[in-house]
Amino acid sequence: MAIPSTPALRGQRDGIGFATHAADMAAVWDASAKDPRPLSLSALPVTPVVGAICPHDDYLYAGRVYREILPALTARTVIVVGVFHAYARSGFRDRIVFDSHAHWRTPDGEIPVSDLRAEWQAHWRPTDWSVEDEMHDAEHSVEAIVYWLRHRHPAREIVPILVPGMSLLRLLSLADGAAEALAGVMSARGLALGSDVAIVISADAVHYGPDFGHCPFGEGGIDAYRAAVDADLDLLRTSIAGTVDSSRIAALYETFVDPQQPDRYRLTWCGRFSIPFGMALLDGLHRRLGNAMTRALPIAYATSVGLPQLSVRGDLGLTAPASLYHFVGHPAVAFTSA
């Protein structure tokens, strides 16, 4: 941990790629609004945004894409569905991971964990989830988004969760149980999806290059880069965009991983489990809360080499190199009530 946690306060895992001080976060916020912009896939919807897919790469690489999507969220309480990168090494799978901290540290001050967490847990099968602070301390995919959510929103609160590896059947079962429990709590409290509660799914897109073990178009270079970007854009426009239902979720899952061996990537999007789970959770909430269907709308896309780095330094840096032989995609997707 760059900044260690305490029993009550979750610290900061990555002190290089993400801002640690308010001045750095403000500089990233300002720089991320300037040209050049990410590739625009659609205008933000005029209807309330109930959820999003957002990257978690270094701010200097991906800051413009965070800025394209996260300000569209207006809900006070945001459930952040994180990637559990190290689940295979830890041997943990098949359950959603909560933390127990009362607050998370951010560059702009502490952000509280909503008391919605405890009530959600109380109504959700205990065999479906676990509380593991050490696992949250080892993961960076939630904090990356939380800092943007807190910036300029001091009253905001969060519920962080991690999604490890699991079969499609187990994933859909967990999401269904999670949606049933959460919908009951939201209904009892009079909370609406979008205006009161929203869901952000943490996920970077393709990780391309020999270091990532993913080179379907050759080891790298401009032709491989263009082909990989085209494949990402096709996935966003055809596999993710549209009405969210179980068949779309299953197809996405099978695009990302081998369903017979879920630990084996087919496509190196690190949101291979967080995206299907988050979409299934949104779908389940909509069906139970009477909000019709969930619709996915791709908003923007960039890569770690497609745009210049943000002209911000301070204490910010890069956690990995980027080149045409080692690059990462950055997707932004909005979810609305159809």
From TrEMBL:
Gene3D superfamilies, per database record: LigB-like
Domain of life: Bacteria
Pfam families: Memo
Name the UniProt record assigns to this protein: AmmeMemoRadiSam system protein B
